[in-house]
Amino acid sequence: MMKKYLEQSSWINWQHPAILVKAKLLSAGSTDKTEIARRCFEFVRDQIRHSWDYRQNPVTCVASDVLEYGTGYCYAKSHLLAALLRANGIPAGLCYQRLSKTGNGAPFCLHGLNAVWLEGHGWYRIDARGNKPGVDAQFCPPKEQLAFHPDQPDEADLLEVLLSPLPQVLQVLTRYATVEEVYQNLPDIPITLDSADGVTPIRSDTRHL
Protein backbone atom coordinates (compact mmCIF):
# COMPACT_ATOMS: atom_id res chain seq x y z
CA MET A 1 0.00 0.00 0.00
CA MET A 2 2.76 2.46 0.90
CA LYS A 3 4.68 1.76 -2.31
CA LYS A 4 2.30 3.87 -4.36
CA TYR A 5 3.10 6.87 -2.15
CA LEU A 6 6.71 6.65 -3.35
CA GLU A 7 5.89 6.97 -7.04
CA GLN A 8 7.31 9.52 -9.47
CA SER A 9 4.85 11.67 -11.42
CA SER A 10 4.84 14.63 -13.78
CA TRP A 11 4.23 17.00 -10.86
CA ILE A 12 6.03 15.20 -8.05
CA ASN A 13 9.10 14.49 -10.17
CA TRP A 14 11.39 13.30 -7.42
CA GLN A 15 13.78 11.57 -9.83
CA HIS A 16 14.84 14.96 -11.22
CA PRO A 17 18.60 15.40 -10.60
CA ALA A 18 18.17 18.59 -8.56
CA ILE A 19 15.56 16.95 -6.33
CA LEU A 20 17.83 13.95 -5.75
CA VAL A 21 20.76 16.18 -4.83
CA LYS A 22 18.72 18.25 -2.37
CA ALA A 23 17.12 15.12 -0.86
CA LYS A 24 20.56 13.61 -0.29
CA LEU A 25 21.82 16.80 1.35
CA LEU A 26 18.82 16.93 3.65
CA SER A 27 19.32 13.33 4.76
CA ALA A 28 23.08 13.57 5.22
CA GLY A 29 24.33 11.97 8.44
CA SER A 30 21.01 10.38 9.41
CA THR A 31 19.12 7.17 8.72
CA ASP A 32 16.19 8.13 10.96
CA LYS A 33 13.20 8.60 8.64
CA THR A 34 11.37 10.83 11.11
CA GLU A 35 14.39 13.12 11.44
CA ILE A 36 14.83 13.25 7.66
CA ALA A 37 11.13 14.07 7.24
CA ARG A 38 11.51 16.92 9.72
CA ARG A 39 14.49 18.31 7.81
CA CYS A 40 12.62 18.15 4.49
CA PHE A 41 9.59 19.84 6.05
CA GLU A 42 11.60 22.66 7.61
CA PHE A 43 13.53 23.26 4.40
CA VAL A 44 10.37 23.71 2.33
CA ARG A 45 8.61 25.67 5.06
CA ASP A 46 11.49 28.08 5.70
CA GLN A 47 13.56 28.23 2.52
CA ILE A 48 10.92 28.16 -0.22
CA ARG A 49 9.01 31.45 -0.25
CA HIS A 50 5.24 31.42 -0.34
CA SER A 51 4.31 33.12 -3.61
CA TRP A 52 1.59 35.36 -2.21
CA ASP A 53 3.38 36.27 1.03
CA TYR A 54 6.33 37.55 -1.01
CA ARG A 55 4.46 38.49 -4.21
CA GLN A 56 7.09 36.45 -6.00
CA ASN A 57 6.86 35.11 -9.55
CA PRO A 58 7.00 32.84 -11.46
CA VAL A 59 3.99 30.67 -10.73
CA THR A 60 5.36 27.18 -10.07
CA CYS A 61 3.74 23.76 -9.99
CA VAL A 62 6.23 20.99 -10.81
CA ALA A 63 8.36 20.08 -7.79
CA SER A 64 11.69 20.67 -9.55
CA ASP A 65 10.55 24.15 -10.64
CA VAL A 66 9.56 25.02 -7.08
CA LEU A 67 13.06 24.07 -5.97
CA GLU A 68 14.76 25.91 -8.85
CA TYR A 69 12.91 29.20 -8.36
CA GLY A 70 12.60 28.96 -4.58
CA THR A 71 8.96 29.98 -4.54
CA GLY A 72 5.48 28.51 -4.78
CA TYR A 73 1.94 28.68 -3.53
CA CYS A 74 1.02 26.23 -0.77
CA TYR A 75 0.03 23.68 -3.41
CA ALA A 76 3.36 23.88 -5.22
CA LYS A 77 5.29 23.75 -1.94
CA SER A 78 3.42 20.56 -1.06
CA HIS A 79 4.49 19.07 -4.41
CA LEU A 80 8.14 19.79 -3.60
CA LEU A 81 7.87 18.43 -0.06
CA ALA A 82 6.27 15.23 -1.34
CA ALA A 83 9.09 14.89 -3.89
CA LEU A 84 11.84 15.35 -1.30
CA LEU A 85 10.23 12.85 1.04
CA ARG A 86 9.68 10.26 -1.69
CA ALA A 87 13.26 10.73 -2.90
CA ASN A 88 14.33 9.73 0.60
CA GLY A 89 12.12 6.64 0.56
CA ILE A 90 9.49 8.16 2.84
CA PRO A 91 5.86 7.66 1.75
CA ALA A 92 4.14 11.01 1.26
CA GLY A 93 0.90 12.30 -0.18
CA LEU A 94 -1.11 15.46 -0.65
CA CYS A 95 -3.96 16.78 1.50
CA TYR A 96 -6.25 19.79 1.26
CA GLN A 97 -8.38 22.03 3.39
CA ARG A 98 -11.21 24.31 2.35
CA LEU A 99 -10.80 27.72 3.97
CA SER A 100 -12.30 31.19 3.83
CA LYS A 101 -9.97 33.51 1.92
CA THR A 102 -10.72 36.37 4.33
CA GLY A 103 -11.39 34.37 7.49
CA ASN A 104 -15.00 35.58 7.42
CA GLY A 105 -17.08 33.43 5.09
CA ALA A 106 -17.14 33.44 1.30
CA PRO A 107 -15.20 33.37 -0.91
CA PHE A 108 -13.54 30.01 -0.14
CA CYS A 109 -10.47 28.31 -1.54
CA LEU A 110 -8.44 25.16 -1.19
CA HIS A 111 -5.27 25.09 0.87
CA GLY A 112 -2.59 22.51 0.12
CA LEU A 113 -0.54 20.53 2.62
CA ASN A 114 1.01 17.07 3.03
CA ALA A 115 0.69 13.82 4.88
CA VAL A 116 3.78 11.71 5.60
CA TRP A 117 3.86 8.10 6.79
CA LEU A 118 5.97 7.82 9.95
CA GLU A 119 6.77 4.54 11.64
CA GLY A 120 5.08 4.44 15.02
CA HIS A 121 2.70 7.26 14.09
CA GLY A 122 1.05 6.37 10.79
CA TRP A 123 -0.16 9.20 8.55
CA TYR A 124 0.87 12.55 9.98
CA ARG A 125 -0.21 15.83 8.37
CA ILE A 126 2.31 18.65 7.98
CA ASP A 127 1.92 22.10 6.48
CA ALA A 128 4.97 23.71 4.87
CA ARG A 129 3.19 26.80 3.47
CA GLY A 130 5.53 29.04 5.49
CA ASN A 131 5.11 30.65 8.89
CA LYS A 132 4.27 34.29 9.52
CA PRO A 133 2.53 36.26 12.29
CA GLY A 134 -0.51 34.21 13.24
CA VAL A 135 0.73 31.06 11.47
CA ASP A 136 2.96 28.60 13.32
CA ALA A 137 3.10 25.20 11.60
CA GLN A 138 5.50 22.73 13.19
CA PHE A 139 6.76 19.16 12.88
CA CYS A 140 6.10 17.63 16.31
CA PRO A 141 4.66 14.11 16.03
CA PRO A 142 2.39 12.74 17.30
CA LYS A 143 0.90 16.23 17.83
CA GLU A 144 -0.42 17.81 14.63
CA GLN A 145 0.34 21.52 14.37
CA LEU A 146 -0.89 22.90 11.05
CA ALA A 147 -1.05 26.44 9.73
CA PHE A 148 -4.87 26.47 9.76
CA HIS A 149 -7.71 24.52 11.36
CA PRO A 150 -11.16 25.01 9.81
CA ASP A 151 -13.75 26.21 12.30
CA GLN A 152 -16.29 28.18 10.28
CA PRO A 153 -19.38 27.10 8.36
CA ASP A 154 -18.42 25.73 4.93
CA GLU A 155 -14.76 25.33 5.89
CA ALA A 156 -13.54 21.74 6.02
CA ASP A 157 -10.65 19.33 6.28
CA LEU A 158 -10.40 17.05 3.24
CA LEU A 159 -8.73 14.15 4.96
CA GLU A 160 -7.99 11.80 2.07
CA VAL A 161 -4.27 11.33 1.40
CA LEU A 162 -3.94 11.74 -2.37
CA LEU A 163 -1.19 10.47 -4.63
CA SER A 164 -1.41 13.40 -7.05
CA PRO A 165 -2.62 17.01 -7.06
CA LEU A 166 -6.30 17.73 -7.56
CA PRO A 167 -7.20 18.71 -11.15
CA GLN A 168 -8.67 22.01 -9.90
CA VAL A 169 -5.28 22.92 -8.42
CA LEU A 170 -3.33 21.98 -11.53
CA GLN A 171 -5.69 23.95 -13.74
CA VAL A 172 -5.09 27.16 -11.80
CA LEU A 173 -1.31 26.76 -11.43
CA THR A 174 -0.81 25.98 -15.11
CA ARG A 175 -3.29 28.47 -16.54
CA TYR A 176 -2.28 31.73 -14.89
CA ALA A 177 1.05 33.48 -15.37
CA THR A 178 1.34 35.69 -12.27
CA VAL A 179 0.82 35.24 -8.54
CA GLU A 180 -1.83 37.96 -8.65
CA GLU A 181 -3.85 36.07 -11.26
CA VAL A 182 -3.61 32.89 -9.23
CA TYR A 183 -4.78 34.68 -6.10
CA GLN A 184 -7.84 36.01 -7.91
CA ASN A 185 -8.68 32.50 -9.14
CA LEU A 186 -7.74 30.20 -6.26
CA PRO A 187 -9.26 26.71 -6.66
CA ASP A 188 -12.23 25.62 -4.58
CA ILE A 189 -14.38 22.53 -3.99
CA PRO A 190 -17.89 22.82 -2.51
CA ILE A 191 -18.14 20.80 0.70
CA THR A 192 -21.26 19.11 -0.68
CA LEU A 193 -18.95 17.13 -2.99
CA ASP A 194 -19.23 13.40 -2.36
CA SER A 195 -16.27 11.08 -2.17
CA ALA A 196 -16.39 10.12 -5.86
CA ASP A 197 -13.37 12.28 -6.67
CA GLY A 198 -11.30 10.89 -3.84
CA VAL A 199 -11.86 13.61 -1.24
CA THR A 200 -14.05 13.32 1.81
CA PRO A 201 -15.07 16.62 3.45
CA ILE A 202 -14.90 16.36 7.24
CA ARG A 203 -15.59 19.27 9.54
CA SER A 204 -13.22 20.34 12.30
CA ASP A 205 -14.30 22.27 15.38
CA THR A 206 -11.05 24.01 16.29
CA ARG A 207 -8.78 26.59 14.74
CA HIS A 208 -5.40 27.75 16.04
CA LEU A 209 -3.94 30.54 13.92
Automatic annotation (TrEMBL):
InterPro entries linked to this entry: Papain-like_cys_pep_sf (IPR038765), Transglutaminase-like (IPR002931)
Positions of the Transglutaminase-like domain: 66-130
Pfam families reported for this sequence: Transglut_core
SUPFAM superfamilies reported in the protein's UniProt record: Cysteine proteinases (SSF54001)
Superkingdom, natural source: Bacteria
PANTHER family membership: BLR5614 PROTEIN-RELATED, CONSERVED INTEGRAL MEMBRANE PROTEIN
Protein name: Transglutaminase domain protein
Upper classification of the organism: Bacteria, Pseudomonadati, Thermodesulfobacteriota, Desulfuromonadia, Geobacterales
